[in-house]
Design a protein that fits this description.
The complex is a heterodimer. By secondary structure, chain A is mainly alpha-helical. Chain A has one domain (19-314): Orthogonal Bundle (ABC transporter involved in vitamin B12 uptake, BtuC). Chain A is 73% helix and 0% strand. Chain A contains 15 helices and no strands. Chain A has helices at residues 3-34, 42-62, 68-96, 101-126, 135-142, 148-151, 156-161, 165-183, 185-195, 197-202, 207-233, 246-256, 261-280, 288-291, 294-308. By secondary structure, chain B is mainly α. Chain B has a domain at 76-300. Chain B has 15 helices and four strands. Chain B has helices spanning 2-6, 20-44, 49-61, 64-89, 97-114, 121-150, 154-174, 204-221, 223-233, 235-240, 245-272, 283-293, 298-322, 328-348, 356-361, and strands spanning 10-14, 197-198, 201-202, 349-353. Chain B has a two-stranded antiparallel ribbon with strand order 1-4. In chain B, strands 2-3 form a two-stranded antiparallel sheet. In chain B, a hairpin with a 2-residue loop joins strand 2 (197-198) and strand 3 (201-202). Chain B is globular. The chains are: A mainly alpha, B mainly alpha. Chains A and B meet through helix 3, helix 4, helix 12 and helix 15 of A and strand 1, helix 7, helix 12 and helix 14 of B.
Chain lengths: 329, 362
């Protein structure tokens, strides 16, 4: 295998690692936005998910738990619950109290980041030092669930079988969400709520319930992404840097992949590659600090390009960002 | 009987024209409710809420030096909230104030670093302020242009612009503007490039108070302010009335960015006397809270920015004295915002409970 080839493969594997948190964040937000709710609080939700997920696994380990599968389950569960809690606040304010979705989402970002920092810092002080997971459990979060024989297959082995368990869960989730949205009656109802809540209401669909469920479950899924970020990229340690905008990139990715769960897979891997490129592909004429802003520049370009195309198939849900009040006309 | 069952227990109706004092009572109630929820959080980590709030207030306002520190925190918050207000009034979700502050700070720093010996101090400071305003305005104009032309999502666009410009500062810090090699620090400004102090705080507070009056007049008594209000209520109405919506958007965003840029100049020249990547330090986001909590009213912003400054300065004292993490101030800020957002519902809608008699009469 040539040197270039192995570099390229290493880049893709790293891209998948960095893309997996984005994948969860994006999938959750797609579900939310399909119901017509624009939740800009993903950054806060993922932050809370990261802090609570890490906390859950840390205390599981401290209580003597050693089963890797259980630790992963605990992490997912804690993060999911954190996401549910955060998006319940959002849902209550925007669906029941009809508050402005933009400002509520921003408030949730501030609040969620605060809660994440608070919990992380509080745990750190209480445990005298720092919060970290032992190497044994760490392995279950970071290394591949497949036997090493499969990973050693030349060229494709690493890419197909060498990723953390979360990537495969994300793939399943994306496929499941695609089937749910496009092949089931409930999915159709959900999409109709996002496109035209008044029509859905007239057809006897409980608009409030669909919006609540989609937003809350979507928030839970996004929060798992935050936990994945802390557990894989941040190395199972609590840090002050937090997520450095991964949640916001996830919101942008939803636009990039046109609200399609399957496109979210390659979209998030692509953005993962952009995030990691400065480490893997040194370019002597670009200073590192400027190289690091590449994903944000690309996001801007993506936003501009996606707003310029005028295609009926490629539009957001028609009622995205609008509160629904039956008596309104 | 079956009819009675179908009447929901609570019905909603829109209401208009609630008396002003009632509206402010509800809002004050929301603030108190938020502080009570904050007390619950403090109680949950084992701090006595009453002592904790007392510590926060005394830590922020107890001593003269503490008051100065608190005002220093409030100045950029207030300035930036004033910048955001017209955008939010127009329903243009500018969350890029962080980047516009940074852009302004970069431009101001350029003159502070390379022109300090060539101009007298008053001229230098004026040039720095103007450069900051221009840079902030132009940085804000980019997303506004694309929003006006292709309706590009401005929320994410302005946000991404933050990360981009902060990356540029990091590059300047470790590259062209680096002081001692390897220090990753831009040298301190010449004393001519530092804002003079008035009453112990850099005179940025006077600038923002002038801006308060300016923005109040601009928003309420000018044609521009009227256009912004109409676009905020309904873009179609504005178009029908013959307003050039795109132009108003770009103009307003330029103004907004320019004010943020001045804030950047104030922070770099008055508070830090240098430029670094944390020059905005979250002000761009917190000021959104200030703007929204004060219902985009310029005078209310003075009070709200002080309230949030007290929270954030007090949280530092709280951490040193009672070991409650400083992020408690973010949590309380978030809760405050949630409560204010929620309480608007009770101002705009009326809850009608089912009455037996009413149901029979129908």
């Amino acid at each position: 295998m040539s040197n270039f080839m192995s570099l390229f493969i290493a880049l893709i594997v790293a891209a998948i690692t960095y893309g997996t948190p984005l994948l969860f964040g994006t999938l959750g937000e797609i579900l939310t936005e399909k119901s017509g709710n624009l939740n800009l609080g993903v950054e806060g939700i993922m932050f809370m998910g990261g802090a609570l997920g890490l906390g859950g696994v840390f205390y599981y380990e401290k209580a003597g738990g050693a089963s890797g599968v259980a630790a992963v389950a605990v992490g997912i569960l804690c993060a999911f619950l954190a996401g549910i809690l955060a998006s319940l606040i959002f849902s209550f304010l925007t669906i029941t109290l009809r508050a402005n979705q933009n400002v509520t989402g921003l408030a949730l970002s501030i609040f969620g980041t605060g809660v994440g920092q608070f919990i992380g810092e509080y745990m750190r002080v209480r445990e005298n030092g720092y919060i970290a997971i032992g190497n044994h459990l760490k392995g279950f979060f970071q290394s591949s669930p497949f036997p090493s024989a499969l990973q050693k297959i030349p060229v494709v082995g690493g890419i197909l079988f060498g990723n953390s368990v979360f990537f495969y869960l994300g793939l399943l989730l994306a496929a499941g969400m695609f089937l749910f949205l496009n092949r089931t009656r409930t999915g159709l109802y959900l999409r109709s709520v996002g496109e035209s809540p008044a029509t859905a209401d007239a057809a006897g669909i409980n608009v409030g319930r669909y919006k609540y469920l989609a937003t809350v479950i979507g928030g839970g899924i996004s929060a798992v992404g935050g936990m994945v970020y802390i557990m894989t990229i941040a190395g199972c340690v609590w840090n002050h840097e937090g997520l450095s905008g991964v949640g916001w990139l996830a919101v942008a990715l939803v636009i990039f992949c046109l609200w399609r769960p399957l496109s979210a897979i390659w979209g998030s891997v692509l953005f993962g590659a952009l995030m990691i490129l400065y480490l893997r592909l040194m370019l002597p004429f670009i200073p590192t600090q400027l190289y690091k802003i590449l994903p944000y520049v690309v996001t801007v370009v993506v936003l501009i390009v996606s707003s310029m195309r005028n295609n009926k198939e490629k539009q957001p849900p028609a009622s995205l960002g609008l509160a629904y009040f039956r008596e309104d006309r | 009987m079956s009819h009675e069952k179908k009447t929901p227990f609570i019905r909603l109706a829109k209401r208009e024209g609630m008396e002003g004092w009632k509206v402010w009572c509800i809002r004050a109630g929301a603030v108190l409710f938020a502080l009570a929820l904050g007390a619950l959080v403090m109680g949950a980590v084992g701090a006595n809420p009453v002592t904790a709030y007392g510590t926060m207030v005394s830590g922020a306002l107890g001593k003269k030096s503490a008051v100065r520190q608190t005002v220093k925190i409030a100045v950029p918050l207030l300035g930036c909230a004033l910048a955001i207000a017209p955008c939010f009034k127009m329903r243009f979700w500018n969350i890029g104030a962080e980047g516009q502050i940074t852009a302004g700070a970069i431009a101001a720093s350029y003159f502070a670093l390379f022109w300090a010996d060539r101009m007298p101090a008053p001229v230098l400071l004026t040039v720095m302020g103007l450069a900051g305003a221009l840079a902030g305005g132009l940085w804000a104009l980019i997303p506004a242009f694309f929003k006006a032309k292709w309706n590009t999502n401005e929320t994410l666009f302005t946000l991404m612009m933050n990360y981009i410009i902060i990356g540029v500062v990091r590059w300047l810090q470790g590259g062209p503007w680096e002081g001692r090699k390897g220090s990753q620090i831009i040298p301190q400004f010449d004393s001519a490039a530092c804002l003079p102090r008035v009453l112990g705080v850099h005179c940025g507070w006077i600038i923002v108070l002038v801006l308060v009056v300016f923005m109040h007049v601009y928003m309420n008594y000018t044609k521009h302010g009227y256009e912004i209000a109409v676009i905020g209520d309904s873009v179609n109405t504005a178009r029908y009335a013959g307003m050039n919506v795109g132009r108003v958007m770009m103009r307003t965003m330029f103004l907004s960015g320019a004010i943020s840029g001045i804030v950047g100049f104030i922070v770099a020249s008055g508070a830090n006397n240098t430029l670094y990547d944390g020059v905005a330090g979250g002000v761009g986001f917190t000021s959104i809270t200030v703007a929204w909590l004060s219902q985009l009213n310029a005078f209310a912003m003075v009070g709200i920015s002080m309230l949030l400054a007290v929270l954030s300065k007090g949280a530092e004292t709280l951490q040193t004295r009672m070991a409650v993490p400083t992020s408690i101030s973010d949590i309380i800020t978030g809760i405050l915002l949630f409560c204010m957002l929620g309480c608007e519902f009770f101002i705009n809608y009326q809850l009608i409970f089912r009455k037996k008699k009413e149901a029979r009469h129908e």
